[in-house]
Amino acid sequence: QIRSDKDKEIHIRYSITGVGADQPPMEVFSIDPVSGRMYVTRPMDREERASYHLRAHAVDMNGNKVENPIDLYIYVIDMNDNRPEFINQVYNGSVDEGSKPGTYVMTVTANDADDVTTANGMVRYRIVTQTPQSPSQNMFTINSETGDIVTVAAGLDREKVQQYIVIVQATDMEGNLNYGLSNTATAIITVTDVNDNPPEFTTSTVSINASAQGCRDTQPACNQGGLSWNHRMFGGWKGSLKAVDYEMNRAFMLTVMVSNQAPLASGIQMSFQSTAGVTISVTDVNEAPYFPTNHKLIRLEEGVPMGTVLTTFSAVDPDRFMQQAVRYSKLSDPANWLNINATNGQITTAAVLDRESDYIKNNVYEATFLAADNGVPPASGTGTLQIYLIDINDNAPELLPKEAQICEKPNLNVINITAADADIDPNVGPFVFELPSVPSAVRKNWTITRLNGDYAQLSLRIMYLEAGVYDVPIIVTDSGNPPLYNTSVIKVKVCPCDENGDCTTIGAVAAAGLGTGAIIAILICIIILLTMVLLFVVWMKRREKERHTKQLLIDPEDDVRDNILKYDEEGGGEEDQDYDLSQLQQPETMDHVLNKTPGVRRVDERPIGAEPQYPIRPVIPHPGDIGDFINEGLRAADNDPTAPPYDSLLVFDYEGSGSTAGSVSSLNSSSSGDQDYDYLNDWGPRFKKLADMYGGGEED
């Protein structure tokens, strides 16, 4: 109650303001305006608001202030109306087995919302239960004020008890169970393992039956392990070793020792290892046959006939104590060249072996064979046979290129030719390039100049050859033993060329196979087309002149040109056939090359002998040394007997001595006597020039 000393003189009215009165929370407190008594209008919660600050006012009936406002402080007294609450309902902790008493495990925490300065908020902890109660029912204790859990007894053993469940209780009122409020939580304590037990066998001897998956060192599986066992008497212990062989060892006696990798924990006085005896009996099983030599390599010449025995590729059956037969078959024979005897493994050829076949890689043909026994179940092994084929000269060389182009006049360009041979050295180059003697026009029109062992040059022998496409046969001979030759045809396009040696446009048309008359006709058509264009431009002014020009171009009677048309070669007359032509012909065989008289050679052949040494250009030449370098190189080239003398007389063969043909020096032609050539005037305008020269026409 509040009261003013002036209430005896005047009537006073009382009021309060502040939080809990006219400010939220509103109307928690009220006051009697006449008597000044204050009241609480509803229950109060200290945990919601612990104190209030109000101001009391006194005024007269007119509202005038009678007293200065006074401050009122109201405190809510705490009551034990809240239980302790654990932060977690389940706590997890761990402790090593064998830990000493007093070892810290974990801490649990509970909070009380009541006033901690009073007994209402003072929490105390205790352990209610422990499960399991082994080896003691009180293995742990808890600090009543801090909540720290520690070990209180020895004997923690993970191999016996791996986990404890402890129920912890928190009580306020300083732990008074009669007046205080309580709550509980669960602490799960895991016992962690330490190395306190050495390994040991539960029995001293063990007998095991093992199957022998035998193999040989030539088989890759031998190095990957083959025997394993898992015996209950060993407590799940498992071991493995290399594949055993029944034919080598039928039983094994082992002493097995087991030890711990990590050292025992301190204070453990026990041996760190244990031993036991193991007897292993090997059971025989069917093993696969194997080829002792795998891969097997043989060498032979290609081209051996079908049915030739190459080798015996046999396998070995490792099962010595089993009566089994081995059968052979082909597994891989890409070209189907081989046969194998099913009983003894003898390999013969089923076709001719060709080194140049696509199935050959680096001169080696590879086939795979299968060897299978008749065991139960059957087993098989594979072996690879490699055949190295030695090259023989069974492929004639082929001329390259197949087509070429050359100018109709010599000395402008040449055709470089070479040869391709499917064989290998020494059955390839150096090659011999020759022109056949038949037909005679080949050697008459063409010539071959040798550059080196693999290349030669084809060029014109005559001064002019009419444009067109010519099939030029060339004989190419390799260096095999015996040598093989082939007559190949190169299509040569002969055409007129410009000063650079390139075929002209007109020449290209001529080389396509058109004669001179056809070329003239084409040119006339072109000129006509050009003339028609000019006529269209100057149609009115030059009509008569262009008509006269056109008449001159297309009149065949005036188209008399000084051209000599080659129709055929008549050849010698009957009087010129009284000699043996065989003495002048090139022989078809190579005996003239192989049996040539020493010291006699063709001047266009590369002589055999030491070659001159050309000077080597210095890496960083001095300007004054360049002239000396050129002069030395020129001098060496002039004195090089191996350089082809392209501008020299070419001797194609040596006639030899004792020729059966008569001397041609007695052959002569006589110009004596008069002959009448007037009949040339009757042969038409194309022979008019000859008639004027020899016929003694009217103009003479």
From TrEMBL:
Note the PANTHER family from the entry.
Answer: CADHERIN-23 (PTHR24027), CADHERIN-4 (PTHR24027:SF81)
Looking at the UniProt entry, the stretches that span the membrane are 506-539
A GO CC term attached to the entry:
catenin complex
Q: What does this protein do?
A: Cadherins are calcium-dependent cell adhesion proteins.
Which is a GO BP term held by this UniProt record? cell morphogenesis
The answer to keyword Transcription regulation applying to this record is no
Among Gene3D superfamilies, the record links this protein to:
Cadherins (2.60.40.60), TCF3-CBD (Catenin binding domain) (4.10.900.10)
Q: What subcellular compartments does it reside in?
A: Cell membrane
What InterPro entries would the database entry show? Answer: Cadherin, Cadherin-like_dom, Cadherin-like_sf, Cadherin_CS, Cadherin_Y-type_LIR, Catenin-bd_sf
Q: Does the keyword Cytoplasm apply?
A: no
Topologically, how does it sit relative to the membrane? Single-pass type I membrane protein
Give the organism the record lists.
Ceyx cyanopectus (Indigo-banded kingfisher)
Instruction: Give any GO molecular function from the UniProt entry.
Output: calcium ion binding
- The superkingdom of the source organism is Eukaryota
Q: Where is the Cadherin domain?
A: 4-86, 87-201, 242-291, 292-399, 398-506
Q: What is this protein called?
A: Cadherin-4
Q: Keywords for this entry?
A: Calcium, Cell adhesion, Cell membrane, Cleavage on pair of basic residues, Glycoprotein, Membrane, Metal-binding, Repeat, Signal, Transmembrane, Transmembrane helix
